[in-house]
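Continuing the series of single-chain predictions for the mutant panel. This is the parent chain; the variants come on the following pages.
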Amino acid sequence: MSKNWALSLALFAPVAMFAQHASKLSPELRSQQSHQGSVRVIVQFRHALNPGHQEKIRAKGGIVNAQLGIVKGVAATLPASALAILARDNDVAYISPDRPLKSTAIDIAAPSVYAPYLWNLGYDGTGIGVAILDSGVHLLDDLKDAAGHSRIVYQQDFTGANGDDAYGHGTHVAGIIAGNGKYSTCASCKLVIRGVAPAAMLINFRVLDKNGAGTDSAVISAINRIIKGRPFRSRL
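Parent structure:
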């Protein structure tokens, strides 16, 4: 091998290694490596979570905010200057921002998906549970059964508050899914507005706050809770 080739390989190796490590950072984070202060991120590892993974975060001056087993990762707050260093760890698969989320409203009614046709066939959601990951669900008569009992069989909050809806979007979505039309059934009502599955049970996971904002990690934590199933599965 000539000296020129040897020099080329010697120069190429560090560049290739840098590119490999940089590819573990999402595009948004690559521009923040030189910033001061901290950043909220989701760190995914190559293997199932173990205590050593959390220690890697703490060793870089970070704080573990939540374990996200479903994606083999953790939600953490890290100094921006530690991102590139952590990305060099062979056990780290990818680092992305714990991105803020917000709700989006829709006004598409059940007839848009031909729900009345299925109702006529006897399909109304009986025995089915639907998990809602949103701003919470406020209990209304439309979400009760014929005996007046709540069809919200389980709820859990991931925002630091409670499962009630302080924003409105989650309740709106719950109505689209499982509203029974009670509020719009009256002598002066021109149209009965029902949800797609008016007899379905609801599992309420609040992941958005009173401003309709939340994080990726809250949604992932809620999905992880759904996969575990219990204790709400026995109530469906």
